[in-house]
What does this fold into?
Amino acid sequence: MNLFLIGYRCTGKTTVGKRLAARLSWDFVDADAEAAADIGMPIAELVARKGWSSFRRAEKAVIDRICRKNEQVIATGGGVVLDAENVRKMRSAGRVVWLKASPETIRRRMMADAASPDQRPPLTNRDLDAEIRETLAQRYDLYASAADAAVETDRDGIEAVTADIVRHVNIS
It folds into this structure.
């Protein structure tokens, strides 16, 4: 079994995922980092050169590879749910937890993360606030239908969110 963390950018998938993996004594996998390593360049550079569809193909290959192993906590990219086959594979290979945060929290975290420009290229031509709100609204049903559980990450610290996830998916 694996544990997949889904959700929008900066909802805590990587930070919580590392802590959760340590608690479970499982491997931690950052799907975006795996995709960037596979393509040999930062995600932002790939998107600028070849577009989002190229990244989505790399992401799909990573999800396929990850799903062949067990006892992993996987921080997925925010758009992994855009591909129904990714969702099907994740659900068949483990449990899926949606990490949720408010648009204000997401924006604050993005602005504080120095890695955001390389890891999080713009999804639209809109300003950041509009992009966050619109993309969250567009993906809401996809996240909800993919998830076995949802956990809010706005107010609670890493330990509390980790404990919530363990409780929701009934693993220890």
Q: What stands out?
A: Residues 95 and 160 are 19 Å apart (CA to CA).
